[in-house]
Amino acid sequence: MRTDSSPGTLPAREHLPAGNAGTPVLDVVIPVYNEEKDLGPCVVRLHDHLKRTFPYAFRITVADNASTDTTPQVARRLEAELAEVRSFRLEQKGRGRALRTVWSASDAPILAYMDVDLSTDLNALLPLVAPLISGHSDLAIGSRLARSSRVVRGAKREFISRTYNLILRGSLQARFSDAQCGFKAIRRDVAQVLLPLVEDTGWFFDTEMLVLAERAGLRIHEVPVDWVDDPNSTVHIVKTATDDLKGVWRVGKALTTGALPLDRLTRPFGDDPRDRDVQDVPKGLARQLVGFCVVGGLSTLFYLVLYSLFREFSGSQIANALALLVSAVANTAANRRLTFGVRGRGGAVRHQAQGLVVFGIGLALTSGSLAALNAASSDPAHSTELAVLIAANLAATVLRFLLFRAWVFPDRDGSARPEASPSTVVATHTPSSPTYTTGGHQPYQPQYPPQGPFPQRPGRQPYAQGGTTTTTQFRAGEAADGTWRDSTMQLQPVRPHDTEPGDPR
């Protein structure tokens, strides 16, 4: 998404160096709710697999969200027995809430999650996170719908999954193949900026995260997986599908109105160090030309229809002026949104005013052409009038694109600084351990302070609300009052609506 004030706030991706250190490179989160039977075997199997195959330090975090059985006791027992296992307890349900809370508090540069049933073959875990470690991609997902994937599941779930992904492609223009596979990973520097924009706290959480990331231009890596359906799954298909469709509507509406500040997620031009100092690089010229031509063609048809209608009850000059005025307003609005990617209402009036100036130039060209035609022939045919107007509009179109690109919707990325806009978030490298914040709410200090040479991913400035931001820092096991307690932290919700009662999940 292009705005007038964002030069890109995420740093270029960098490869994480290998080495032996206490800080884990990978934090695998397992969100659970009443999984006392499956949790133990799942964690032991995952831990054994990572010990044997993963070349970096890792952590497994059990995110218990309001279980009412003995799941919390099982999680604490696993934490005591396995050094790489941690447990978090949340007092509210919701897989998305659990993932956002734990990911926001983690200090690992690569964050992942998988379902407790381990339906996905664990051999896909290293290929999933490798592109994130190398700096190639921002997010990674497992796909059960890739050609080389091998999937065992019933016809009902297969139909629902494929239908849901078709809905995402048709309504939200999603290009990733599988939104619902419980096997995903994200870089921490991306999560710090992306998670506050994700509203859902349940099963739609990762779909919303992927849609926003894709719309922001982040790179999503897909890994074909082998997947075996769990026949004992407790997911309520009908309710989950209904909530997902509501989420699709909400996200689609927000994207249409430009309510989401996706410019905060933009990457700089090029991830190669040689490209980071390149100035005045034309961005999206080919795409803008295509979009402008499409909008221009539709606008021309719209203009001709209006001219023919107005010509029935007025002279050619009045019909031309009215048709050009109406089509110019529509053309400016369409180019603003579709060609130059400017969303939201900010600057809309100014853009329309500048568009009317461009309209005046077009009016002068077309009116002059009609005047010349009328001077040459006292009663020209209607088809001749249309031919002259089309030629004049073609000349005006070239000038309109140049004026739109250079004056009405200029690319200000090279000159606007992040500090010029209070809504812009700047991510910078810092040698100290960052404090993570989410949307101006209670920030989180990493629960496990880094101890090794792995680089700290950039922190970000908290979103200020009301001009002030409160920052509270504490270490694992240390409460705000300075006392030490059990290492199973009870994290607070990271969004204001997380405290609403009656969440069905």
Strand content: 5-15%
* Number of E-state strands: 11
Low-confidence stretches: 1-8, 272-282, 413-505
Count of separate DSSP helical elements: 12
Q: Give the rounded overall mean pLDDT.
A: 75
Largest sheet: 7 strands, mixed
Sheet with the most strands: spatial strand order: 3-2-1-4-7-5-8
Distance between the termini: 33 Å
Shape descriptor: elongated
Characterization of this structure:
It is a single chain. The chain has 505 residues and is an alpha/beta fold. Helix content is 41%, strand content 10%. The protein has twelve helices and eleven strands. The protein has helices at residues 39-53, 71-81, 95-105, 125-134, 155-171, 188-194, 205-215, 237-257, 285-310, 316-339, 348-376, 382-408, and strands at 26-32, 58-65, 85-90, 110-114, 139-143, 150-152, 183-187, 220-224, 226-228, 427-428, 459-460. The strands form three sheets. The protein has a seven-stranded mixed sheet with strand order 3-2-1-4-7-5-8, with helices on both faces. Strands 6-9 form a two-stranded parallel ribbon. α1 (39-53) links the parallel β1 (26-32) and β2. 39% of the residues are buried.
